[in-house]
Each structure stands twice: as C-alpha cells, then as structure tokens.
Predict the 3D structure of the following.
Amino acid sequence: MSEAPAIRVAHLSKAYALYPTPQHRLRQLLQPPAARLLRRLGLPAQERRYYSEHWALRDLSFEVPRGETLGVIGRNGAGKSTLLQLLCGTLTPTAGEVRVSGRVAALLELGSGFNPEYTGRENALMNAAVLGLPRAEAERRLPEILAFADIGAFVDQPVKAYSSGMAMRLAFAVIAHVDADVLIVDEALAVGDAYFQQKCLRWLRDFQARGTVLFCGHDMGAVLGLCQRALWLEQGRMRRLGPAKEVVEAYLAATAAEAMGLAPPDAPAPAAAPPAEAPGWQPVAAGQEFGSGDARITHLRLRDAAGYSPGVWRGGEEAFLEMRIAPRREVAFPIAGLTLKDRLGQPVFGTNTGTRLHGERLEPGREALLCLGFRLPELASGRYVASVAFASGSPAQHVQHHWADDVLEVTVANPHHNGALVAAPARAASLRPAAG
C-alpha cells in the first residue's frame, strides 16, 4: 500500500465577503436573523445579501508526496497566501478539504504570531509551544534557537523594536528547531542579509532530505533550485502543475507576452525542413515558445570559429550562434539573444546583439541569416540547454517576435575548471616579496 501524501487538497475553495460600506456589513449582521424571526411569527420575510463574493481560490485539487518540495507561483492576488493560510489552519475553507500529515511549521508574514510587547526570548518560547514543542523541550532548545537567530542583546528587547530582518531571523530560528514534518515558507527568504539567507538555505536543503516543503515566492531562481514540482495559480485557479522547470518557463513566457501586449503562448507551428547546405543546423522544434509571430526562428546552430558544430565544448572558445529568421512583416532594429541554463533550468549565462544591428531591416517573406558571436564561458562540465530569442527595438524596450525555450543542447567537458559553475580566467598575476 502506497504511503499517504503529506498534503492533500481536494476541491478547495475560499470566498471572502466584500461590503460596499460599513453600513452594509451591519445590515448583513442584523437583517437575516430578523427575517428568520419574522417567518417564525408567520410573517412574510426574505433574507437579503448585502455583500459580493470574491473567490480567492476555486476548486483546487493536488497532492504533495512526503519528501517533495513544491513551489507555488503566480502573480500578486493569485491566491498563493490564501492557500498557505488554509494549509496552516489559520483560515477555514468555504468548500473542499485540506489534509496535512505531521507537525506543520510555517513562516508566513514576517512576525506573524509574535506578540510585539514580549521580548524575543519570550516569543521564541511561545511560538515553539504553538508549533507543538513541549515547554520543557522548548526551554532546553532555547540556547540553540537564539544562537541560530544571532540577534545579540535584542533577544531581551520587545519585538516591536525589531527590524523586519531581525523578526525573520527569530521566526526562522524557531521553526528550524521544532522537528517539523511539513514546512511552509512564504517569501520569507527575501528578507535579511546575504549571510543569513545562505544560512537559511543550507538548513532548508538539509530539511528537504527528511521533510516536505511548500515554497511560495516570486524568485523563480529559488523555485528552480529548491523545488521538484511547481503549482502555478492564476485568479484562484490552478493554471498548471508539473515539473518546476516546465511550469516556471511557461509562467515566465506568459507574463512576458502579456507585458508586451502579445497573445498568450500557444502551440507553435511546426518548423520547416532543415537546410541541407551546411552541417549542424537543426530546426526549432515545438516546445515552450511565445512572441508576436511577425518573425520566426526556423533553424539554428552553434558553431566554432572554424565553422564546425562540436559535440563537446571545452569552455572559453569563441562561439557563433547562427539563426535563420523568417519574417512575415518588415522588422526594423532586430535583436537576437541566447540564454544558457543548467540542468535545473537556472540561467547561468546570457548574451544578445544589443544595438549592433540597429541599421538593419528584415523584409517580409525573405529569409535572413543572423549571426551572434561571443566567447563561451568556462563552465563546469555537464549538459546545458539554450533558449533563443528574436526581437526588435532596443534592449530596454522591445517587442518579442519569437522566444523558444530549450532548443539547443550544449555539452561541456572542461578539464581545467576550478569547481565553480562559471569560472573567470585570470588575466594577470604577480608575486614579489612583501614590503618590510
């Protein structure tokens, strides 16, 4: 028998009542009971509703297996925070059900659950108790909690005197020491200094080995780096659920298309047959893509200075990205670019033509060959994928005609790499006796 999921959400909906004025709220409080009383007395009366409903979530269903990290993404107002509060039990659903197995620790709004008049020490003990830690155990672990928070003498000052970063430090320190089974994090890692953020991320990665995480945020790099799957919410409904890389790329494509006034991404047209006169060319296969459609990248290749397309790159070479562009309309001020991503889908390198082609124009119906030259970074050995784009305008303000994700694979075998994801070769070095 398979193990029960850590989180199960079934047909979950949450509605809020919106009142035009405070008077309507009072009428809603008084009129329905008065109408029921009149009916019991034999008098005709109907209950009236003085509010409109706003559905923050509507018919949401998904499961999170034990040990998985699920990212929750979407615009502001999409329903992310409402979902997390329902999972924590601080809100009750209008319809549907939520089941969470095990002890839940949540880091939602900074300082939520803290009494501003109590000291950090008192709030740490109180929050640990709220999260299910016995008082004696909380007191035993208090030195570890305070050491993790590292807020110095402020631990004995009222929380109302804390900065947002200090409050986050204390809140995170508590949840890191309560033996939670399920951790729910909402944007909290964006606050605080870089040192503490790295400390939290190291702890979070250790926790992932033994617990379940629901991570909500606008930092797509963090979602890609931490999460196996992602849930995209839009206007309270599930837009997409699947592997984090696929969902994040679809979300970014949709938001970029909307920001430029383009139609939402849909199924791309199949590419034409590849040209036969040069090796290494490949069609831009169907996948995640968007754009105006005024011009389309039909084929591309990545070649070296000698004109060959190596199966394996060492890193540090001169590289040339060639694209065949099929314009449907005239395109002025063209821009082409490339983004190289690692196996998690995180961008590690990008380049574009900038303003170098601003004197050029593409005529409708006449295919063009565009070449972008750059030096390939000294990357760690491994497999990378490239997304390519063709636009017009300026780097700061442009119209995207065709963006295609993961259309090119680049394999790097670098025997001299220093262990970092991207290395920078030294340009100068010296050694001399130190001054006495």
Notes: Residues 22-40 form the longest helix (19 residues). The chain is about 25% helix and 35% strand.
